[in-house]
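**Protein of interest**
===
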Amino acid sequence: MLLINRFISLIEDHAESLSMKWVQDVRTNHLTEGYSVYTRDALHDIVYTRIRKLGEWIEKNEGRDRLIAQHFCEIGAVRATSGIKASEMVYSLMLERDLLWHYILDEGIVTEGVDLNRAIEFSNRLNYFYEKAIYFALVGHEKEQSCTPDMKEEGFFDKIFEGFKHWLIVE
C-alpha cells in the first residue's frame, strides 16, 4: 500500500507540470479541438485541482462515489453548455488518465515484481475512478443537451446513481 501512496504523492506533488502537459495535449489534439474555446489558464484550472486531490478522488467509499458522481455530472453539463462534444469530453478525460499512468511508469519507481503488482493495483484504481468520471460526465452532458422530461425531473440524478450503485461499491 505504501507504494500506491507514493504514486499518488508523486502525481499530486507534480500537479502543476502534469496539468500543463495535459493542457498542451488537449490544445494540440484534433480529437479535443472543441476545448479551444477555453484559455490556457481555464484549461489548467479544469485539471489541476483534480490531479492535486487524486488521493481523495480514488479512495473507495460510498460517500466519495456520490460526490464524484455529482461533480462529474456538473462537469458534463458545463462542457455541454460550452459547446464541447461528448466525444471530446471523454477523450480529454482519457488523455488525463493516460498522462498520469505514463508519468508513474516513466518515473522508474516500479523496479520489482512486488512493485509491478502495486502498480497494477494503482492502475486499476485509476481506471475505476476515470470510468466513473466518464460515465457521470456523459450523464451530465446528456442531461444538459436533452429535451426529454425524464432527464429534467427533480430525482433524475438519484435514479441514475442508484442504478449505477451496484458497480460503485467494490471491496
